[in-house]
């Protein structure tokens, strides 16, 4: 009996968007209008590349970025939840699929000593150049019309499950915990024994309820959460 827990990162594990939080490092803690206005829908990673270049041009160094990023608060109850999962790893495999980047997620999880809770993190690869600039790339290429150019979370989840199956690992249930519009695509992939846990009041919850109104409800069960403690209560029920 093994369960797979799939987490989004921004506004799910942490209570902020890591990509917009980094702007605190910018001069006057804001971006110039021409940079802000150059974002094109579906091309967020490309836009963040420009933001990181701007920070580099303004002499913002790695250690300052790291200090800033590790002040992001965790979502209410999430510290308890991750502690609980860490103590019960024999029952739970745990992955993150996120539109953030490897550097930010790594910093935040390691600073709080939660990196061991997660088996794998699927997110946009980022790295510092020899001149100290942070760069970021798209996670993969895909053909999904519903998802942003850099990441289809459904594809990332499906490839992980296929790889696990090849190694003889299958899951009693998948629990998907997220908040955003880009979490809908993987949620529609879940089967009837699985559970989607959208964060209360966020886009994913609204999109799931819209599907029910359009009479094309998703197959899996849906449990709304507002605190990590509610997710923990559900996981404790599973273990019974």
TrEMBL record:
The keyword Hydrolase applies. This is Pyridoxal phosphate phosphatase PHOSPHO2. InterPro entries: HAD-like_sf, HAD_hydro_PyrdxlP_Pase-like, HAD_sf, Pase_PHOSPHO-typ. It comes from Struthio camelus australis. Pfam families: Put_Phosphatase. Its cofactor is Mg(2+). The keyword Metal-binding applies. Substrate binds at residues 19, 99. The active site is at residues 8, 10.
């Amino acid at each position: 009996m093994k369960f797979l827990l799939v987490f989004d990162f921004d506004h799910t594990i942490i209570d902020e968007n890591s990509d917009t939080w980094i702007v605190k490092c910018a001069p006057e803690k804001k971006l110039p209008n021409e940079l802000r206005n150059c974002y094109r829908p579906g091309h967020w990673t490309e836009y963040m590349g420009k933001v990181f270049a701007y920070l580099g041009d303004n002499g913002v160094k790695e250690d300052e970025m790291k200090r800033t990023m590790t002040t992001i608060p965790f979502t209410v109850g999430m510290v308890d939840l991750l502690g609980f999962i860490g103590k019960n790893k024999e029952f739970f495999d745990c992955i993150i699929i996120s539109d953030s980047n490897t550097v930010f997620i790594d910093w935040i999880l390691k600073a709080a000593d939660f990196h061991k809770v997660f088996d794998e993190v699927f997110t946009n690869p980022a790295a510092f150049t020899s001149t100290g600039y942070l760069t970021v790339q798209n996670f993969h290429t895909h053909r999904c019309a519903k998802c942003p150019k850099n990441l289809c979370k459904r594809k990332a989840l499906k490839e992980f499950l296929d790889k696990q199956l090849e190694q003889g690992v299958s899951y009693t249930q998948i629990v998907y915990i997220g908040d955003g519009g880009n979490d809908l695509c993987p949620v529609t992939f879940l089967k009837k024994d699985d559970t989607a846990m959208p964060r209360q009041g966020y886009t994913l919850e609204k999109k799931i309820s819209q599907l029910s109104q359009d009479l094309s409800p998703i197959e899996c069960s849906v449990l709304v959460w507002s605190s990590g403690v509610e997710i923990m209560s559900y996981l404790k029920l599973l273990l019974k």
